[in-house]
Structure formats: structure tokens, C-alpha cells
Amino acid sequence: MNRDTLLHIIRFIVLILLQVIVLNHVNFLGYLNPYIYIIFILLAPININRSLFLVISFILGLTIDMFSDSGGVHAAASTVIAFFRPIALRSVFGLSYEFQTVKLSNVRFGEQLLYVILMVLTHHIMLFSLEIFNFSHILLIAKKTLFSSLFTIVTTMLVLVLFRRNNS
């Protein structure tokens, strides 16, 4: 097992523990709840085996579901963004992604922010649509998606900036 694989395993475990022990208990005003466990999906290697990545993302979400008693919504949302990730990467990074030279810690802040926004919004729309699962509550879905997305994006960007500084 190489150093990068060990780093990803540790990141997987730390993000799950942080989410279920600390962040699942953060709920400001009923709408603000950060879901930073998706950082694992955001930072996964570009060249990871796609099938393996989908399975790992599903397991990540399922683990959060087991601790949150949320019936599979995190597993579904995590799998969706893992599936959507190549599209987001291609849209934001273009040729750098095509040649597999993208490293999230080395890209400009604006590109990094756009990538995080795309992924978080996709995750949260899926998560809250499945959680509420009632079209008559579309405003509640939109409100939870918007506010939790903003909170998650800010928290994720702070973590990524701190992580970048530690690597530099």
C-alpha cells in the first residue's frame, strides 16, 4: 500500500468520524447543516477506477446513513455526485482534466470554488429531494438546499485552503 492510498483511507475515516460525531449535531435554524464528508469524493484521484469509485462513494454515503438513521439518502446522493464528478471536472478544468493533470490543491481558487459549488449543489439537491420526497414541499427543498449548500461550500473551502497550506 502506497502513501497516497493510506492518505485516502485516513481521509475517508476522519471525514466520516467528523461528520457523524460533530457535524450531524450542527443544525442552525433547521436549515444549516454542513456535509463535509463529500470532501472525500471531491479529492479522490482523477485516475481512480470508476466502478471502484462508485462503490466507495456508495459505502461512504451508506456509512453516514447508518449513523444518521437517514434511510439511504446519503448513499444515493454520494453515488450520484461520484457519477457526476467527471462531468463537473471536464466542465470546470477542460483540457487539464482530459490529460489527467488536475490536482485540486494546485488549481486557481476560482476554479476550485466552481468545482466545489457544482458538486455540493448536486449532492444537496439530490439529498434533500430524496429526504423530503414530496413535490408540494419544493420551497422547503430549495431552502434546505440553498442554506446547507452555502454552509457546506464555505466549510469545504476553508478545509481545502487549510489543507493546501499544510501541503505547501
Automatic annotation (TrEMBL):
Segments passing through the bilayer: 12-29, 35-60, 72-93, 113-133, 145-163
Gene Ontology biological process terms, A to Z: regulation of cell shape
UniProt KW keywords: Cell membrane, Cell shape, Membrane, Transmembrane, Transmembrane helix
GO CC term, one of those recorded: plasma membrane
Primary localization class, coarse: membrane
Membrane topology: Multi-pass membrane protein
Intracellular or extracellular location(s): Cell membrane
InterPro entries per the UniProt record, alphabetical: Cell_shape_determining_MreD
Family: Belongs to the MreD family.
Record-given protein name: Rod shape-determining protein MreD
Organism in which the protein naturally occurs: Aquimarina muelleri
Native organism taxonomy: Bacteria, Pseudomonadati, Bacteroidota, Flavobacteriia, Flavobacteriales
Protein encoded by which gene: mreD
